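Forgive a beginner's question, but would it be possible to get a protein, spelled out as residues, together with the matching structure tokens, please?
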Amino acid sequence: MLADGDRFEAHRPTLIRLAYRMLGSAAEAEDIVQDAYLRWRGALERTAIADDAAYLRATVTRLALDRLRSARAQRETYVGPWLPEPVVADDAGDPAAAVTLADDISFALMLALERLSPLERAAFILHDVLDVPFAEIASAIGRTEEAARRLASRAREHVREPRARRSPRMSEAIRLRDAFTAALRHADMEAMLHLLTDDVVLLSDGGGKAPAAINPLIGPNRVARFLIGIATKGRARVTGVVPAFLNGDPGFIVRGEEAGFDGVIQALAVETDGDRINAIYVMRNPDKLRAIAARMREAEA
């Protein structure tokens, strides 16, 4: 028989996956999963648990719903666009795995989930992402099975368009990312404009704690001018640019020296339609970059 710790660890990856998709924060996901572990251990001392997975999924879902409702109020006063905390994978990773990850937690999908009600979000993630049966979902969220089906169906309509907009051709997306990086490095406006779609959008999350575009930028001219201007002004502070997959999309991490940051000053991801870049996501909020900085230090130790 597995010890309690090992018994729980078998479920941790799925629970982290659920909590992050609910909240868009890796740090909060870890906190919630740890809280669920303590509740599960407490329950074991009082009674037998027939299905650990179902119990833990329900506990994480309820904890995430409580935190999500609180976070919604906080995000109403958030300065500028909100983006999820980036989940980073090494650029040397498997491109096919990156495509799967992007289908699951791409910036576009995570932003679409933000527009859902908390219950719609929970029903969609549990059923469409984790393949949990509706009977279990109904119990976890305190609704009837039919209500859970309707919540998931409504959510599916909202997230269909962001998924359709992305291209699954990861090799082409990486090529576009590399051309985009070269255009920034050389401040080549013509090359940059050639890479962007007519309706390209840039979202930049500074959270009021770092310089960032306060509103979404739309259109190739505005986006290109902004990016090249920022890159040119900030070049002196940059100590390195590291290719990476961010939430499954190709991008890069900018290392450098800037007050208030911990060695990583920016993370940027590009979304493509297969031929050009249609969305750019820039993370500048230092609170959402600390985990990346810590991970990079650990890799170098």
The chain has three domains: 1-77, 107-165, 170-300. The longest strand covers residues 196-205.
